[in-house]
Structures are given as structure tokens and as C-alpha cells.
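This entry is passed on directly below:
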Amino acid sequence: MVSRRGSSCGTDPVALVEIDLYGDLMIAASSADEDRLSADRIDQVLGVGPWAPPEDGAE
């Protein structure tokens, strides 16, 4: 890891969460039958929207 001036040597927790969410979207897109994910499917993958996520954390 390259340290930039003024940054700490630790990890950025926000960046790690963003990378994890991006990975979830990539997995969902690669397994989708359609060319693009619908807005509803994106919301579901990201855990936002009117639906309630499963309590066990599984999709």
C-alpha cells in the first residue's frame, strides 16, 4: 500500500465497505440473465429499498 502525504497508514473503513458493495453488484450482474440489473435488483443487492432483507443475512 502506498502512503499518501497526510494519510494514516491504516485502512479506510468506508472504502472497504464501498469495495464490498461493488463486489456484490459485480457478482449479481455476472449471474443475471438480463443485460442490465434493474433498479429494484440493485436496491436489493445493496440492501436498500422497501423490501426487508433476510434476517440471517443470506440472499
